[in-house]
């Protein structure tokens, strides 16, 4: 009898292991199909843009077509490494360009660009005779000369769209001013500091998690509390609303990761595996997977359907404070108490690169909604990184405007960007900064007032889907709603 039972137990273990392996393979295949579909869409978009550009260049009579052809000629003749042109070769190139333009305006509608290119490259020997020099970049805000080099960098071209025909002394346009923000409502109900906030994609409600172990769902219009969710045994640290199912995910100091069914308002799944408090959680916008970061220094990727851990990502040497994911790339970002930002390959389950410019703990990482840019908020500064490689772009200028509430010891605790390119940064002293995404400049600073007998400090923030409302979760147990002044009247 014992032999039969032992054999049956081994058979059951084999079947369980086989089932688990099938689930892991299914999850990996799903991720690979997702990446392939994304790549096909990107290639199709690139081909469409290429076809549109070819159509414009093929029409010499069109103004846009002429500008593209002119820019192509000048870029071909003056590479980015060349000094500012000021010799006979320049005159020859300009003469060839003007002749091409005259032909395009009516003398020869069917003429192509080959004759102009021959004229340009006929002077290539003059260009080669010039001693190689290194040109200094044009300072921001300086006048752009008509003899300036035409850079190939698309970011620079987008910022200076009139470089080809610009006149001496014309400076780049000033960024459009942003409307200011005003506190509209203060919501109370939690009995402990509010540590996280998330907004539903329908923009009809949002949720908050608190140190009092509860999760509250609030009506976006009436600001009334609709539902109380009770299930965590310790403080709730992170919330994420699924875009592909009616689920809400939460994590907390009790090492728990929970999946809530919002149609039944109860926990339907628990994810076990972290060996410490779980500080951050993010739901993938298109796949049934959830990413968590924990005090145990690990980032885990969970399959929602099977409840299994698809990947365990190791590399941080201190607690992981923030994680985020995106739809445009199979990539995860995480920030930790070790002052590091990691970029992870979601499919392979391994580290892509480590970003090391922060000098203090990284409290928040977030992807831009449209650009391939990552923003990381450390206790020291806010930095922007180009994706997918993680090249450093710039720091946000947190002190380029008068800051009456500024404190040299402020620790930046959270950072978010809206779909209207407004960046908000919150501090542990209640300081709230509003910055412009494109110019990186500060246009408003405020400081929240704590409710009576409450502590000061902003612990989390989230914009609504319209980008006209901001929700802050604060240490004084309150939730505050801010509105743009053009929305409040």
Automatic annotation (TrEMBL):
Residues 82-112 are annotated as: Disordered. One of its GO terms (cellular component) is precatalytic spliceosome. The keyword Membrane does not apply. It holds the Pfam family WD40. WD repeats lie at residues 187-228, 229-270, 271-312, 313-354, 451-489. Residues 88-102 have a biased composition (Basic and acidic residues). InterPro entries: Prp46/PLRG1-like (IPR045241), WD40/YVTN_repeat-like_dom_sf (IPR015943), WD40_PAC1 (IPR020472), WD40_repeat_CS (IPR019775), WD40_repeat_dom_sf (IPR036322), WD40_rpt (IPR001680). SUPFAM superfamilies: WD40 repeat-like (SSF50978). GO terms for biological process: mRNA splicing, via spliceosome. Keywords: Repeat, Ribonucleoprotein, Ribosomal protein, WD repeat. The keyword Transmembrane does not apply. Belongs to the WD repeat PRL1/PRL2 family. This is WD40 repeat-containing protein, putative. The lineage of its organism: Eukaryota, Discoba, Euglenozoa, Kinetoplastea, Metakinetoplastina.
């Amino acid at each position: 009898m014992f032999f039969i039972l032992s054999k049956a137990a081994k058979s059951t273990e084999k079947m369980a292991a086989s089932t688990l392996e099938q689930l892991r393979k299914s999850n990996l295949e799903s991720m690979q199909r997702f990446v392939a579909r994304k790549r096909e869409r990107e290639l199709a978009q690139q081909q469409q843009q290429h076809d549109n550009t070819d159509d414009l260049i093929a029409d010499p009579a069109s103004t846009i077509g002429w500008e593209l052809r002119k820019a192509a000629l000048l870029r071909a003749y003056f590479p980015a490494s060349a000094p500012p042109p000021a010799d006979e070769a320049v005159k020859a190139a300009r003469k060839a360009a003007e002749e091409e333009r005259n032909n395009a305006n009516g003398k020869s509608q069917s003429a192509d660009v080959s004759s102009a290119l021959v004229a340009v490259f006929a002077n290539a020997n003059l260009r080669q005779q010039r001693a190689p020099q290194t040109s200094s970049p044009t300072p921001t805000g300086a006048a752009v000369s008509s003899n300036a080099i035409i850079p190939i960098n698309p970011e620079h071209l987008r910022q200076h769209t009139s470089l080809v025909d610009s006149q001496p002394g014309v400076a780049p346009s000033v960024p459009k001013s942003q409307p200011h923000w005003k506190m509209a409502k203060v919501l109370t109900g939690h009995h402990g500091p509010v540590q996280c906030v998330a907004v539903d994609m329908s923009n009809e409600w949002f949720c908050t998690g608190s140190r009092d172990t509860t999760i509250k769902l609030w009506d976006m219009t009436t600001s009334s509390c609709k539902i109380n969710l009770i299930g965590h045994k310790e403080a709730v640290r992170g919330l994420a609303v699924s875009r592909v199912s009616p689920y809400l995910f939460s994590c907390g100091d009790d090492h728990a990761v929970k999946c809530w069914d919002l149609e039944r308002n109860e926990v339907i799944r628990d994810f076990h595996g972290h060996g410490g408090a779980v500080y951050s959680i993010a739901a993938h916008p298109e796949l049934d997977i959830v990413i968590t970061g924990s005090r145990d220094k690990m980032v885990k990727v969970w399959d929602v359907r099977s409840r299994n851990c698809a990947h365990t990502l190791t590399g941080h040497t201190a607690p992981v404070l923030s994680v985020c994911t995106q739809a445009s790339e199979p990539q995860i970002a995480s920030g930790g108490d070790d002052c590091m930002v990691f970029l992870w390959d979601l499919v392979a389950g391994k580290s892509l690169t480590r970003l090391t410019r922060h000098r203090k703990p990284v409290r928040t990482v977030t992807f831009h909604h449209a650009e391939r840019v990552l923003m990381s908020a450390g206790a020291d500064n806010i930095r922007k990184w180009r994706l997918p490689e993680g090249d450093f772009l710039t720091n946000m200028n947190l002190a380029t405007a008068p800051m009456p509430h500024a404190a040299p010891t402020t620790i930046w605790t959270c950072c978010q960007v809206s779909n209207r390119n407004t960046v908000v940064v919150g501090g542990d002293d209640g300081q709230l900064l509003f910055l412009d995404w494109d110019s990186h400049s500060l246009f408003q600073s405020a400081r929240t007032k704590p409710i009576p007998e409450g502590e000061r400090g902003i612990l989390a923030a989230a914009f609504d889907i319209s980008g006209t409302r901001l929700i802050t979760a604060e240490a004084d147990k309150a939730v505050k709603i801010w509105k743009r002044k053009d929305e409040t009247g």
